[in-house]
Task: inverse folding
């Protein structure tokens, strides 16, 4: 292995030790036909410089592509680079590269590096260079570098640089421990708990019902809150659709096929008598007999369950038939609801059974379900008919037919909607995922194509125009305005009532005198209360013991009294484990902040230039 002048001028990479990942990325790029400076017009090779270290266009391109892949896998859909660039991905990648370049520049300035032996050891362990024997193979190493258009000197310089950066980061941020006093304070703060009572107020708690708004009140509310009555920007879309239900009624019905379908699914329509049963299994007959004796002497079934060291849920067999219970079936099915029988044999050993519920047999006759089964067969036939017409309809579109032509000549349903991405529309077609996805992405001038729906139907659509955001006229907004007015008036009335209750409770009246009180006996700072805003717990931890407070947030109005403050448990294994975990997390946070502060300082000292036009060129080249 060789060493060149490149060693004296380190460049930043994405991660300190992931050289193998970098190599695989390089091989992938070459396998796709190559990507280099010529992809950016033949002139752009550097997008930024920190001190003496350059950040190449390829580094930035690879960083963006890597993040695009990560986000796409995380969300389970393919996200385009340009969608993520629009929400700041490019800036995040660039900041990461600039930080690494700053560290690399500082390492070069102070002469920090590693020797050839360390570089060789790292390369020898890389799976990409292992031969059939599983160990480093010199020819494989040479071949892979040639495919990547890298010399050994340049590749080994990159490895040296990445190892050096890793070492530098550990020197800066490694070995940091959390201050003991600060850790203890955080532990005590985080593990305090509170107990409190909550009186939730609703419209029924008002002394008098809210009156309906007058016309003047409603119009005044509408005028005062124009932001509530806005039609969002929408896509006006015309679509032509053919759905199974459109054709199902016209499909012929074969009575023999309907009866055959009923017979095939007879288990759905004829259900034998069943029992919901609990079973308590014992290791041997003697133990089962002894348990039965205890039950006969007055012990409950729950007592026997507790004695076995299990929960009642563990005994639940659910909904069973006589055949499901095997040899125990006759005895269990002879018992009445609530009876305990046994010991009886089971596949796990002798057991005592309790019959929780008796479920009578059920039968749905053929005549009762004939219409539904016939419709199922007709719908299946309709799907097949639509599938047979799919290609022909698509060919008509390709030949220049309009959506209106399809409606007139092929019987498709024609409709126009104002589609708002992300909103829940009223039209049936918007209930299909495939339609929404197509409507989300369609742009003006797109060619209409036939698209299949989840239920076997098909559709094609066309974007007619973008309908700008606009106010909803008062007459159209009347119902929504009435609802909003009522919500606003109710919130004000409940807030006023809550203040009245607060005053009376602070004066000595019981909180329970005003309604049902929920009691939370113990909650920590990370806890939540069902149906309450997150701010409730935060408010509770700001109260003093015995304090009564009104909590009014996001439509939730309540009167809260803090009953108790419990200090953190400071002794015991669990407390020590929590302290250790907190200390580790605290130390990691300090390490991250220390590395960030150091990086910012050396970057400012080294100086940085950013070629935004070069960045824009790379962004434009992304797929």
Result:
């Amino acid at each position: 292995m060789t060493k060149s002048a490149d060693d004296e001028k380190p460049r930043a990479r994405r991660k300190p030790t992931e050289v193998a990942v970098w190599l695989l990325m390089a091989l992938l790029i070459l396998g796709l036909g190559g990507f280099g400076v010529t992809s950016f017009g033949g002139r752009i090779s550097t997008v930024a410089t920190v001190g003496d270290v350059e950040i190449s266009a390829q580094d930035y391109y690879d960083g963006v592509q890597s993040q695009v892949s990560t986000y796409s896998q995380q969300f389970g859909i393919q996200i385009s680079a340009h969608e993520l660039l629009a929400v700041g991905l490019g800036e995040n990648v660039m900041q990461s590269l600039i930080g690494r370049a700053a560290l690399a520049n500082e390492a070069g300035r102070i002469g920090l590096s590693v020797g050839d032996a360390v570089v060789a050891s790292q390369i020898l362990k890389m799976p990409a260079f292992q031969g059939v024997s599983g160990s480093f193979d010199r020819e494989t190493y040479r071949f892979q570098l040639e495919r990547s258009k890298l010399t050994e000197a340049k590749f080994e310089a990159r490895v040296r640089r990445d190892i050096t950066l890793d070492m530098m980061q550990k020197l800066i941020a490694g070995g940091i421990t959390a201050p003991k006093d600060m850790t203890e304070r955080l532990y005590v703060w985080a593990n305090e708990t509170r107990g409190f009572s909550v009186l939730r107020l609703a419209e029924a708690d008002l002394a008098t019902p809210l009156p309906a708004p007058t016309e003047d009140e409603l119009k005044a509310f509408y005028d005062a809150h124009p932001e509530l009555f806005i039609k969002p920007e929408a896509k006006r879309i015309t679509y032509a659709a053919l759905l199974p239900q459109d054709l199902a009624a016209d499909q012929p019905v074969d009575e023999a096929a309907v009866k055959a379908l009923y017979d095939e699914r007879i288990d759905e329509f004829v259900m034998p008598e069943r029992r919901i049963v609990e079973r308590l299994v014992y290791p041997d007959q003697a133990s089962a007999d002894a348990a039965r004796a205890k039950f006969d002497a007055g012990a409950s079934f729950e007592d026997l369950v507790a004695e076995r060291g299990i929960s009642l849920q563990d005994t639940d067999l659910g909904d069973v038939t006589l055949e499901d219970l095997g040899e125990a079936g006759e005895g269990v099915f002879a018992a009445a609801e609530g009876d305990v029988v046994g010991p009886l044999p089971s596949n796990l050993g002798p057991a005592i059974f309790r019959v929780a519920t008796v479920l009578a047999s059920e039968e749905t006759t053929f005549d009762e379900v004939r219409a539904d089964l016939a419709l199922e067969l007709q719908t299946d036939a309709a799907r097949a008919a639509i599938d047979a017409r799919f290609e022909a309809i698509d060919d008509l579109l390709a030949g220049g037919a309009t959506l209106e032509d399809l409606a007139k000549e092929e019987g498709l349903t024609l409709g126009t909607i104002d589609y708002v991405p992300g909103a829940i529309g009223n039209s049936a077609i918007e209930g299909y995922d495939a339609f929404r996805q197509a409507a989300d992405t369609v742009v003006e001038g797109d060619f209409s194509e036939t698209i299949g729906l989840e239920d076997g139907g098909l559709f094609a659509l066309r974007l007619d125009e973008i309908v700008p955001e606009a106010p909803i006229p008062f007459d159209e907004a009347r119902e929504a305005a009435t609802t909003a007015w009522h919500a606003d008036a109710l919130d004000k009335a409940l807030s006023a009532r809550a203040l009245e209750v607060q005053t009376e409770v602070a004066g000595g009246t019981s909180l329970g005198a005003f309604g049902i009180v929920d009691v939370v006996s113990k909650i920590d700072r990370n806890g939540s209360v069902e149906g309450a805003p997150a701010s409730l717990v935060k408010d509770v931890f700001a109260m003093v013991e015995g304090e009564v407070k009104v909590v009014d947030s996001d439509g939730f109005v309540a009167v809260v009294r803090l009953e108790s403050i419990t200090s953190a448990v400071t002794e015991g294994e669990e407390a020590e484990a929590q302290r250790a975990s907190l200390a580790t997390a605290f130390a990691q946070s300090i390490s991250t902040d220390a590395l960030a502060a150091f990086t910012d300082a050396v970057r400012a000292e080294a100086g940085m230039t950013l070629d935004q036009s070069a960045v824009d060129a790379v962004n434009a080249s992304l797929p």
